Amino acid sequence: MKTKLNLILIYISRFYMAIVSIILVPFFLNTLGTEAYGLIGVFVVLQACLQVLDAGIGGVMTRQCILTKNDAESFDGFSELFKKLFLIFFLVGFLISIFGYLFSDYLAVNWLDTTLDMSLTSNCIALMFVIFSFRYLQGPFRSILLANEKHILLSVIDIVFVTISNPLALVYVYYADDKIISYFLFQTVSSAFRLVVLGCFSSFLLVNTRKFLLNNTRNVVDVVKSDFSSIIKFGFQLSFISILWVLVTQTDKLTLTSVMPLSDYAFYTLAISVVSVVNIFSSPINQFLQPRLTSLYAAKDFSGYTRVFENSFLYLSIFLIPACFIVFYFGNNFISIWLGSEHKADVVMSYVPLLFTGAVLTVLSNFCFLLLFSHGRLKWHTIFYTFFSIIVIVFNIYIAKEYKANGIVVFYFFSCLFLFLFWANLNFFKYFNRFHIVFFYKLIPSILISYLFFYVANFFRFKRLYLDVYLALGTSVLCVLVLYLWCFKFIPNIFQGRLRISYRNIG
């Protein structure tokens, strides 16, 4: 019951965060202007690129905290490790702010194609680096809360600060004179406040966990050590994957910011905002599964591990597959209502369908990472992803320069499709017996059923914007219900458990 409650609350918070951010985009766009709003798009890209500085340390801390929270001696070792790593984070964050201050003028002149005042643009860029520094320092504290599965607390904090940094920020910017600089100043203060809140809660949790372990001693056969030498190999693999992921997903956007006018890039930013809807479904599952799968594997509960993995994969699939068809058949209707302009919707829709489908494939491929992360086996994943990333990065830069955004979305879709069909499924079949049951009896039929639903719905269009949106929503609800019955009721009942995947213990 607690597990379901945690997952439901995570979904509520993520849904709120995504919806608030998406709904307010047109208001920010109208308040700031297209070109100034493009600076927010640049900030999103810059923040994503600077995430390489996390170097996978956040994931290492989460996993290590899970493994060491069962006895006092192991936890003391982790606490010392945490202090050292946070000091590193603090120094890196400080250097990021200094770099932004020193090089903001250079970046404003040589990076962006904009008609905005150079002094204004430079100040905004400097603040971008300060904001990132504060958000970067939040990482270690979030890792502590995540490792202890404090999903409710994290959800409440996220809801509060998304409200502060979006609706309240819009009100502040609306009445401010220098609107774009006011936006970044507001985000700076909000990020600093959020850092303090996360720091207080995680510190309180560390102290209380240690007191609990000292008062409840257990017979522990093996003490889990938390020194750099014992985790450096896994940490390096995770950090390298994190860096590659950022490079793969952001080199196209970085290149586009330098070859497209900022006013045109703003429309690509709007398309990315639409695609962020995928995070409503994927982020909660990812937040929930990372500590849960690691705990189940450490406890050698392979039956529970398989059940959680398969159910999570299928639940995501039965929501995301119909969502792709909504975008293809009715996306223009939704975006026209959202932006209040059919012209803007047409431009954004030239990017959205392939970006959205690629994002869905990426979410499903991420189950491969969760699988290997929970096992602590990232060696071959790192090797494969290195070669994959080099190829993608080279093509990202070339295609962005030669074919701009239209070429990028096509390449993005096919690279995501390859990653899912080849590497993700290779590992699924390696770690689970009869995984073809999920692929051929559930996933592919779900795609065909969804296609049939929306193909038929397209013939019943009302040719009126809002009525077609209601038609799309009704079709999607009915489609999800049918997919649920197919995957969780019909197939299991027909074959009476004979077609059930099982964990393959490969040592």
How would you explain this protein's 3D organization?
With 507 residues, the protein is mainly alpha-helical. 86% of the residues lie in helices and 1% in strands. The chain starts with a helix and ends with a strand.
Quickly describe the structure.
This protein is mainly alpha-helical and 507 residues long.
Mean pLDDT: 84
The sequence of SSEs as H and E is HHHHHHHHHHHHHHEHHE
Estimate percent helicity: over 70%
Major sheet strand order = 1-2
Would you count the extended β strands for me? 2
Proportion of residues in extended strands: under 5%
Taking pLDDT < 50 over at least 5 consecutive residues as the criterion, the unreliable ranges are: none
- Global Rg: 23 Å
Gross morphology is: globular
Q: How many strands, what sense, and barrel or not for the largest sheet?
A: 2 strands, antiparallel
State the end-to-end CA separation. 32 Å
Q: What is the count of helical runs?
A: 16
Structural class: mainly alpha
Helices and strands, with pairings:
Elements lengths: L1 H31 L1 H17 L6 H12 L3 H39 L7 H30 L3 H25 L3 H37 L12 H32 L2 H14 L2 H21 L3 H38 L2 H8 L2 H24 L3 H53 E2 L2 H23 L6 H31 L6 E2 L4
Antiparallel strand pairs: 1-2
Provide key terms for this protein.
globular; 507 residues; 16 helices; mainly alpha; single chain; 2 strands; two-stranded antiparallel sheet
